[in-house]
Amino acid sequence: MSLEITLENVDVPRGIFSLVKMMNDPFIILKWGEETKASWDSHKYSTTRKSSILRILGRKSGSLYSGTALEKSQIDHWITFAETHLEIPCQKALEYLDESLKHSSFMIGETFTIADLAVYEKLVPVKVERDLVHINRWLQFIELTIQDYEQNEIDKKKRAEIFAIGDNRHVGKHGENKASKTTKFAGMQSEDSPTPKCNSGSGDKSEGKTGQKSTNRNVSSPNKTQRPGGDKEKQKDEGKFVDLPGAEMGKVTVRFPPEASGFLHIGHAKAALLNQYYQQTFQGKLIMRFDDTNPAKENVEFEEAILEDLKMLEIKPDEFTYTSNHFELMLGLCLKLLNEGKAYVDDTDPEVMKIEREKRTHSKNWNNSVQINIDLWEEMKKGSPAGQKCCVRAKIDMDSPNGCMRDPTIYRCKNEAHPRTGTKYIVYPTYDFACPIVDSIEGVTHALRTTEYHDRDAQYYWFIDALGLRKPYIYSYSRLNLTNTVLSKRKLTWFVEQKLVDGWDDPRFPTVRGVLRRGMTVEGLKQFIVAQGSSRSVVMMEWDKIWSFNRKVIDPIAPRHTALTKVNLVVVNVDNIAEECLQVAAHPKNPEVGSRNVWLSRKVWVEKSDAVLFKEGENITFINWGNLKVLKILKDASGEVMSVDVSPNLGDKDYKNTIKITWLAEVKNSSFTPIISHYFDHIISKSVLGKDEDFKQYIGQDTKVSVEMIGDEDLKTLKKGDIIQLQRKGFFICDVPFSQKCTTNEEQPLVLNSIPDGHTKEMPTAKLPKVKTQVAAGDNKKSEAVIKSEGVGVEEHEIRAKVDDAGISVRNLKSTKASKSEIDAAVKVLLELKKQFKDLTGNEYQAISGGKQSIVSKEKVESKTAQQPLKTSRNMGAAEDIRTKTDEAGSKVRLLKSAKASKADIEAAVKLLLDLKKQYKEMTGEDYQAATAPAISDQPVPKKDRENKKQQVPKVQEVSSNTNLKKQTRLGLEAKKNEDLPEWYSQVITKGEMIEYYDVSGCYILRPWSYSIWETLRDWFDKEIKKLGVKNAYFPIFVSHSALEKEKNHIADFAPEVAWVTKSGDTTLAEPVAIRPTSETIMYPAYAKWVQSYRDLPIKLNQWNNVVRWEFKHPQPFLRTREFLWQEGHTAFATYEEAEVEVYQILDLYEKVYSELLAIPVIPGRKTEKEKFPGGDFTTTVEAFISASGRGLQGATSHHLGQNFSKMFEIAFDDPETKLKKFAYQNSWGLSTRTIGAMVMVHSDDQGLVLPPRVAMVQAIIIPCGITVTTSEVEKKALLDVCQTCAKELVDAGVRAETDLRDNYSPGWKFNDWELKGVPIRIEIGPRDLKENQYVAVRRDNGVKSTLKYLTLKEDIPKLLNEIHNSMFQKAKSELDSHITVAEDWKTFCTDLDKKNIIMSPFCGAIPCEERIKKDSSKDEPSDSGAPAMGAKSLCIPFKQPKDIHTNAKCIHPSCTEKPIKYTLFGRSY
To answer: pTM for the complete prediction?
Structure first.
C-alpha cells in the first residue's frame, strides 16, 4: 500500500521532510501543496495532523517508533510536548528541554526516534540562545544523525558507488556542520555532493507569480556538470558554495539590491557575482533592483554608473526593478498593520527613542488606539508639521534581546522630491520594511545577505508573517573584509569630496572602477570570489590574495615590452653591428600572443644602475639579443660611468652566470615611446581599523608615485585597458594611450598604472633610479625614500670605487710592513670613506665579489666590528705571541690529563690556558682555535644525564687562511633537527635557557624561561576549571605502603613502580613510605570521610603539585622525566552522566591549551582498552604529533573512573530514591610539563627555540642598534631612552616586553642570543629609525622584517603577535595533516609507519590484537633513543573518524579475524 505525503510549500514541516528522505521508501510518494497531509488507501483515509503523520511514518520505518511500552510512551510524550509547547516556545519550555537533554544524546536515551524529529522540526526555525548549550549541542548532533540515517538507507549498489567515489566525504560534512554551526534541513551534504532539492522554505517561484499550485514534485538537484566551472581542474580553486535549501533547477530567483548613492565597490561585486553564481547554477533568474527608499540619497547619475559597473563585471540581470515601483502597495500594507494593531505612529524625539530602545522601555504612544494612529498617519502623508515629527513603528517586542526587534521604524516623513516619483509621496518606507515585501512580491526565492544582517533576519520574517506574504529563504554569507580598506559609501564619498583621490575610479579606490583601472581583470575578480565561496566565516583578507588571482589570469597572456627609467641612462657602443629589426616572441611561453619588434644598432641605452655592475672582459646578457662582451668602461674624473664599449659575443650561449639587463637601441627609423608610470599604495595606512577608530587618523601619505620612462616603439599602439608586462619591472595597464597632435607634433605620453602581482605588500618600484620624480600632492617623503632605496646609483658606485682603492692601499702597506703612522693614516681614510658610503646608501659597505653586489644589514656589520677589533701590525705581532703561548699551554693540559696528574695540577693548567685564550680574544676579536687539535671550550661542560651513554667528540675545525670565512662560535646550535634530533633537542633546551641538567638522572632544573611557560598554562587552566566549580587543594606527597598495596590488590594489571623512602637518617623506617606517582590513593580515603550523603556531592578538587615516577629507562627533559610538575583533578559525582559530561569538558580545555596557547594542533579521542588508565572506565586524550621523529605524544588525559575506586575506598552515599547504598562516580584528569617539551619539538628550528607568543616570557625584545664609537653620548642616551619608552608602552598595552641594553655585546650577538631563546618579536631601533619615527619588527617564526611607525606601536605589536600565533598553528597543522594516512592493509600500514606517519586503520579493539600489532610492526634498526625502533601502538580512537567502517572491512592486523569497531590512530610514540 502506497503512502502519499503532501508537504506545504511555504512552511515546510522539516521533521517530516527529513524522515521521508531518511526512509528512502519507494512506496512513499512525496508531493507539494498548500498544506501538509498524509493519504493512503487511494485517498480513502487521510490526516493533516503532523504528529500523526510522524507516527505513521515512524511505524512504517520499523525502528524509529518501537521499543518497550515505556519507551513508546516517552516518544509520545515528546511528540505531544513539541506540538503543544514548542509551536511558539517559551523560555520555561526551552529550559525544561535543555535540562532533559543534559545527559542524553537523543530525546529517548541513546536511541534516535521520531521524537527527535518532532522536536527538531519545531526548533530549527527558532534562534536558540547560546546559554542553552544542551539544546544547541543536540541540534547539531541530530543533523549529523539524519545524515547518517540517509546514508544507511541507500541500497548496497549505491553505497558501493559512494565509497568508490571518495571516502573523505564523511569527514567533509562533519567538518562543515562543526564550522558553520547552522541548523539547516536541506543543506546537510558534503561540499562535494549536491543537496537534494525540494521546494521548501521558500515556496514555488511560479506560485509566487501566478498563484498556481504545483504537485507531484520529485526531489531533484542540479547536476555537477551544470555548475559554472564544472571542470575538476578549475574546481580546485573553488571555495565552498552551499547549495541553497529548497532550490529547484530553473525555479530559483535571486536579487541584487544596491542603493544608488555611490559607485559599486568590491564588496558589492562579491554580492553581485554570488547571486549570478546561483542564478547560473540553478538556471534561474537574477533581479537587479535599485533600493530607492531614501530620496535624499538617490542619484540618477549613480544609477547609470552602477549599471555600467555591472556591465564591466559581465553581469546580465534578467530583470531591472525599483523598490519605488511598490510604494503604493507598501502604503496599503502599512495601513493594514496599523488597523490590526501591529504598528503605531510615534512622535517621540529620536534621541529619546534611542534611549528607550536601549532600556527596552515602551514608547508613550505604544498603547495608542487604532484611530489615533490612523489620524497621525494621515498627517504624516500630508507632510504637516505635526506629521513630520512622527514615524511609524512596528509593534514587535521591546523586551527582545535582539535590538532589531524592538519596535523598528517602518515609515518616516521626508519632505523631499524623489528622482522617480517626484513629490507624489511625503512618507517613505525604510529598507528593513520594504525589503521583505518586495522580495516576496517579485518572486525572490532566496535572499542572499551578508552576516552583518543576521540580527535582522527575525525582523524580516516577522514582516512576512504579519503581512501574510510568501516567505523567501534567507542565506547569509560573510562580507568581504580587506586590509587597509574602508568600504562604507559615506567614507569613500569623503575621500572624493576632500580630493584625496582623483575620483570614484581612482586606482587606489576599492570601487569596481578603481580596481579595474588598477589592472584587475573581471576574470581574476571572479576567480577570487569563487575561491571564497559563500561561506559564513568572517575573515580579514589581504589585497595580495586578490592580486595573486589576477596575476594567474594576466601572466599567460600579457605581452612583454621594454622600458627604461628616463634619467641616468648610459650609452653602450656596440662594435660591428648593423642597424636591423628582429622579430621576437611577445610572450616567451605563449606563441599565440604574437611577436614584437626589437631594434638593434650601434648605439644602445641602458640604465645606469645596470651599467655600474659591468666589468671589463665579462659577458653581459642583453635580453632578447644575447651575450655582449664589455671591452671598455669610460668614466669621468669623479668615477661616474659615462659610456661602455662592447662587442657582440652571440656565439657564447652561457647565460647562467651573467648579468641580465633590459636595453633600448637608438635607430633612425624608430622613436622611443614617452611613458609616465604610476605606482600606488593603500590610502588607509593601518591594516585593520578598530570599530571605534576614526579612519581619518590613518590616511596614507605618499600613496601615488609617478616615474618618467622611455619604452619601445610598439608601446605606442596600446589602447586604454591593455595589460602588458615591462621586463624586469612588472605588470602595467594602459590608463591613457600615447597620442600625437598632427598640427603641433606635440606628444601625449603613454600613461601606465602598475599592477600588483600579489607577491609583495610594498610598492612595486623595483629598478627605479634615485631621481626626483613627479608625485601627487603631498607625495614627497615616501616616494623619494622608496626610489632612493632601489637600484645602485652612480654616486654609490663612485664612493664604492674609492673605498675599494683605499682598502687595497691599506692591505699593501700591511704586506710591506710599513710604519705604524702610515698604516694608521691609510686606515683613517678608509674608515672615513666607509662612513660616507653608509651615509649615502644607508647600508654598511661590503666588498663586491663575482660581479654582484652584496649588502649586509647594519646589525651584522656592527656585530662583526664590535667583535673583531681593527688589526694593526703591532697587535698582530702580539697576537702571534699569545697564540704560541696558548698552543704550549694546551699541550701541557693534554699531557697532564694523559699522565693522570693530580686534579689540582690539571685545574691550574686549565686556568692558565683559559686566561691566555681570553687575552687572545681581547686582542684579535676572534676565538682561539688550535690548528691541529680540538679547541678546549672556554666554559665548563655541564654534566650530562646517565642516559647519554656516548660522548660526542667535537669535530676538529680546520683553520683556513682565508680571513673572509664566517667565524664559528658556540652561541648557536651545533646539531640539526633533521639529522640528530636527540642532540638538537638537548642543545635547544639548554642553550635556550629552558633547563639545566642535574646530577640525579631524570631530574632537571627548570629555569625561568621554561617555568614562566608553565605559569602561563597554569594560570589560564586554573581560571577555566574554576568556572566549572573546581577548587584547589593540596594533599601530602607521601603515600603509605598499605594504601598502595590496597590499590595494587584491587586493580588488575596495576603494578606501581614508585620511589620509596626507606630511611630517616641512619634509621630504617618501620614501613616504607612512597613518593606519590599520582594521588588517587592519597585523596580518596579523605573523600570517603567527606561523603556521607548525596548532598555532599559533587566534590571537585584539583591540586598543582609534583610527582615522581621511576618506571622508565630513557629520560628526556620535559617529555619523560622522573619528577615533573602537573595538575591533577579528582572529582566525584552522584551519577554516571554528570561525571561523563565533565570528562569531555576538561578534554575541551586541554585541547584549547594546545591550540590557543601553544599553537599546537591535537587529535582528541578515546584510548583503547589496552592504553586506558588502569582501573578506569574509559580514558580520553589529546594526542600531539612530532613530525621530526614521526612520533605521537600524549598531550593530556581525562579519565572516567566509573565506580572502581569509589568501591575500593568506600566513597558511598544513600540513594535518595531507593534508599540503598550507592557508590560515587569519579573522574581524574591531568596536564603536565610535557606540554613544554611538545612545544619545543613542534615549533623550534635549527636556530633555536621558537616560542608561541601567548606563553613566551618575553614577547618582544627591544634592541638598540647603530651605536658606534662616533655616536655622541647625547645621541646614545636619546636612543636608549626611546627603547625604554617603547618597552613601557608595550607593557602598558599588555605585551610582555623588555629591552636589551647590555653594552658588552654587539647588536648582532644579541640578535642571535634572543633568536636562540625564541622571543616572538625582535624590535630594532637605530639612529636612523629615530629620525624617521619608526622601528623594525622581526618575526622569530619566519624571519620576516617589517618597518612600522612608532605611532601605532601599541596596536601593531599585539596584532603581529596574534598573526604569529595563527601562522605557527597553521604550519604545525599542515605538518600534522600531511603525516596522517589511512591504511586498510598491513603492508601499507608498515610502509606508512616507516615514513614517520601516524596511521588511521580499522581495529577490533582487542588487547591481544593490539599487542601483536606493536610487536609485528617493530624494527631492529636503532631509533633516536638508542633502543630498537619501536612498533606502532594505539594513540587513540579519534572522535572524528575518517569514514564509516564498511561491512566488509577487516581489522588491520592480517591474522585477526574479528570485525573492526572503529578507525584507530596508530603510531610510534614518546
So the answer is: 0.43
